[in-house]
Amino acid sequence: MASNSFGKIFRITTFGESHGPAIGVIVDGVPANLALVESDIQFELDRRRPGQSKVTTQRKETDTVEIISGIFEGKTTGAPIAMLIRNEDQRSKDYAEFKDLFRPGHADYTYWAKYDKRDYRGGGRASGRETACRVAAGTIAKKILREHKIYIVAYTLAVGEIYAKKKDFSVIEKNMVRAPDLEAAEQMIAKVEEARKDCDSLGGIVEAVVHGCPPGLGEPIYDKLNARLAYALMSIGAIRGIEFGVGFKAAAMRGSQHNDKFYMDGNRVRTYTNNAGGILGGIANGEDIILRVAVKPASSIAQKQETISKDGLSAIIEVKGRHDPCICPRVVPVVEAMIALTLIDFLLLHKAMQR
Amino acid sequence: MASNSFGKIFRITTFGESHGPAIGVIVDGVPANLALVESDIQFELDRRRPGQSKVTTQRKETDTVEIISGIFEGKTTGAPIAMLIRNEDQRSKDYAEFKDLFRPGHADYTYWAKYDKRDYRGGGRASGRETACRVAAGTIAKKILREHKIYIVAYTLAVGEIYAKKKDFSVIEKNMVRAPDLEAAEQMIAKVEEARKDCDSLGGIVEAVVHGCPPGLGEPIYDKLNARLAYALMSIGAIRGIEFGVGFKAAAMRGSQHNDKFYMDGNRVRTYTNNAGGILGGIANGEDIILRVAVKPASSIAQKQETISKDGLSAIIEVKGRHDPCICPRVVPVVEAMIALTLIDFLLLHKAMQR
Amino acid sequence: MASNSFGKIFRITTFGESHGPAIGVIVDGVPANLALVESDIQFELDRRRPGQSKVTTQRKETDTVEIISGIFEGKTTGAPIAMLIRNEDQRSKDYAEFKDLFRPGHADYTYWAKYDKRDYRGGGRASGRETACRVAAGTIAKKILREHKIYIVAYTLAVGEIYAKKKDFSVIEKNMVRAPDLEAAEQMIAKVEEARKDCDSLGGIVEAVVHGCPPGLGEPIYDKLNARLAYALMSIGAIRGIEFGVGFKAAAMRGSQHNDKFYMDGNRVRTYTNNAGGILGGIANGEDIILRVAVKPASSIAQKQETISKDGLSAIIEVKGRHDPCICPRVVPVVEAMIALTLIDFLLLHKAMQR
Amino acid sequence: MASNSFGKIFRITTFGESHGPAIGVIVDGVPANLALVESDIQFELDRRRPGQSKVTTQRKETDTVEIISGIFEGKTTGAPIAMLIRNEDQRSKDYAEFKDLFRPGHADYTYWAKYDKRDYRGGGRASGRETACRVAAGTIAKKILREHKIYIVAYTLAVGEIYAKKKDFSVIEKNMVRAPDLEAAEQMIAKVEEARKDCDSLGGIVEAVVHGCPPGLGEPIYDKLNARLAYALMSIGAIRGIEFGVGFKAAAMRGSQHNDKFYMDGNRVRTYTNNAGGILGGIANGEDIILRVAVKPASSIAQKQETISKDGLSAIIEVKGRHDPCICPRVVPVVEAMIALTLIDFLLLHKAMQR
Hints:
The structure is a homotetramer.
Chain A: E1 5-6, E2 11-15, E3 22-28, H1 38-48, E4 65-67, E5 71-72, E6 75-76, E7 81-86, H2 93-96, H3 108-115, H4 131-147, E8 151-159, E9 162-163, H5 182-197, E10 204-211, H6 225-234, E11 239-244, H7 255-258, E12 262-265, E13 268-271, E14 279-280, E15 283-284, E16 289-295, E17 304-308, E18 314-318, H8 328-353
Helix pairs in contact in A: 1-4, 1-8, 4-8, 6-8
């Protein structure tokens, strides 16, 4: 029940607090003989790290990864891969003044209620910083998936009420919000700037597409592919909801509209529509897997907010620090990582069960 | 990785096909000395069984539960509780004619792609009938939760575009769609009837509320309470999405609106709003847990639909049988059961970790 | 933590008490398309069942297996396989008179201490009868292993102080004690008869050999092949110890004697000796896996024994019933089953990790 | 299936190779508010580290532990505790010359057969050095167990054929072999010296006693206390066998001798004898848990040995390095650690299941 691990055959375990010496991750169950170097990992970490653009927090963390074990002569050995990311830009004193106060929207109160002992410095274990470990581990999973021609892409579909109207994947990494639509991206950035000026933050929607997932991946009954993906993605702190294919729109549809009809495309079974989002009965049907997650507006805002102290006294809190006005662009690589970590487990299991 | 089990400390394992001799469930990890009789289970099964009203399928299954083990002199012994539900009204021949065809929206194709061997009779293992086992097991979890004053209620929030406008829990079991609003219920029933006449089906939204969940329940980092609930609920075949608190609406909110401010209510920490849906950082904060799931329109409809055979030939399929025009009312007890099975695991773990 | 399950990818869950309506097992994670009929299972169950010879208990249980799910048209479907074995010859009243007494050597007291509620009829859940479920499930594992040319054989190496001097596997099933030496078998049988006449029981040693295990099976660090086998075999109630290769004799050896030197046998890496019992660093090296388990004398004996009641009063207990004077011959198929269930998990995992 | 983790509720994950930068362990599932400082850990590590006496290897490793996470203001926070132990005295070049040779008795060949990629420096992941991580983690488990008045002590019962004749626990830490008998210890030390002079090594037996284990700990059916202990201890590389209570001697006993008769000692249920070693039906009965493990003679010996290369060529290998002539004294703290890690899981689960 130890809960800092994710996955079964390919399993990660993360540790570390935002203001301790380091955070890190152990990746166990990696097949041997996979070429892997630190720069593979660093590339993805750089997509998540703070300070990468004006729409993200201005904290300076290089998030430099150090591989401690599991690699020999440039390849995985089958042993667990330990990776460390040192914490650098820790201004713990930023937090000292409200060490007894519960920041609204954060896990301060619930950790205190649960453990009666709390590392108050920047959220400690509850900090979004933990997701860097997911990204590091996810890179390894992605690499194996790519060898099997399974590709994952995530992007910011909406910021506030501004939606991407196009889905041009080639521009995602070319704009600060990681939207697949440059025009919409500009409007989104303007909205984020506006929120920042108001000492506020803004939510959004991140969408992800998995291309190349072979039919048959996923397991009945409880480890349905969508169930495991929902579990994986809802474990990201900022996520408030998840939907697959048409998602909540299914509620207002009739079966005759919603059922995806089958046809043959050469030798391949296809469906005309993809309302199911690529998954039937918890098992991939070979169509693109499509899902969306609702990202809440970041809880850290530079405004005065009403709250209480752990002694039950009313208080006003003003979290100065350096915050993300919209975390969607930084959530994108985390979403990809969690999808990759979910799929790799199913892929390995799938191989196990072939006769 | 065996995937027909759910839970860790309190763990269920289900088995059986819709057209085999029986379905069943083993519940392991039940504390000893809990009073339990078959009628406790039967009560909940009757809420899920087919044929209970005109808005559900007219199949006749009494879904009578038989407890095989784990109870002695009316109380649990700590041994696994095995429960069998015999299949009665199996018209396997209803299915023989399309044994080689893939029903749109169903898992026929994906099971075939995965296993290359398929019990085609009524979905076999993929049948919604498996959820009766969840309800049976969930009853035991609910009973223990009630002893801890944790109460779960689910209801149909919407059928198609008709939403309940009131939340009067006392009427939920008094209308055929299990809506908390009798007036809306009537409109919903009319909509379902309409769909049935059109040989079609209709989706909806089921909402659930957990009252009395103690602050501190849930685990960082991966087994967040919302992550495990999402996993539990997305494993129900008909669910297309899940959201907590304000859910997808969070995308368009600002942090200053979305953050739930704390205050003291006597000795109890409360929040003025409950946008987070009772969970912060994956841990219950003591407010009601509120979640919604999108229920797709049932895939079985009595219309002609285009499809293909397993040999890749085009075909027209017409699934006669007796279908649910809207499965929301039958999903309600399943949602409750899956929430109960999730919470019980956290509750037992919570006790384990107290010093 | 539910503890009535064994295995990870290929996972069994057992249930049922010796004096309830039935015992049974769910086998999850069985690859699809394996031919399987009830007679496959029955064959192995018959090797374990009571009443098969004069050296076993005279209880009459046919141990007839009924497959409830997971098989369609003679083949596995990938769905969980549920098997039921009805209890027939239950003389519950044999046990009523000492329902408040703790039988020495049995789990009566510890179950009562743990659960404060106890099905006293014949050991309830703690009965050796549960091992029939292991044998049923193990048959499926064995069948898959045989397809991979992995063969498991177990036999009675010693009864009391009588040891088999030859290892002629062809005679194992041809004598009542399942010894690989007909001459020794006769002496063993005489010893068992002697014990029975004295209203007593006798211990022994069961040895097992796995032939054909491919080099590479097993996992560092914690799931070493020998560690998982020890776990599997020590979970059989009557086992008091386990050793691999030279086992406890290693304590008195020097490294120069104990190290198995390598040589090439054609293309195959071999060792001149097999002191390690076929496992190095927790991983099979391709030599035969050899292990021995110490079997305690059955605790049920038809003598008067001093004990106490659950109220703490001194008492004399005389367990009449029909007992096994030596359980070695019936432990043999259980040992084989547990080895098979352990190996299958490693075999499936091994396939998962191949690139 | 990732296999570098041990435990369920209280779960450790280890990583690192003997000749990489560091080894380490993550301990997840530690209750909050336990006082813990590095010196607690260091104390136990010092009992295991090399170079502590003339009967152990002369390698110089201070095995200094660094706590990276999970502790705040001297107490556990409920977050995972990461501990690093830097590798210092790595003479990797000692190993370069036989990088293509398989050392007899070691896991060189099986790792190569399994992974086709091998860190040949000092055993890499298969090195006994990994057990330092177990000791570090075990210290935390021990600390919690002591709070519950559960005490674990292990000691060298035999070296070669020299057995301790007394069991004076007060002298265990006062002699180099950790025997509970100073006179026997001297003879043992002489025997070890003799083996060392012959460039050889010697096996032995380590015994452990758990005092204070409450009746009821342990779980039927598969997670029997003895089954989990056997799994835990057999995962230590040097162990060849394990037995509980009378162990293999049970084979030659009759039931009337072997059954431990119950009596009342005041309010406490006791048995006159303890042949079962404190466990009945997989559950502690309150008597001392007694077990013994067979420790093989260390495989690294400074003699010329026949072997083969990975290309299948015959070769002579002479492993110079600095070796342990008898590893029993260093196995002692590892045995204690693995017992502690096993018991803590059962203890936490036990609390979970109390009503």
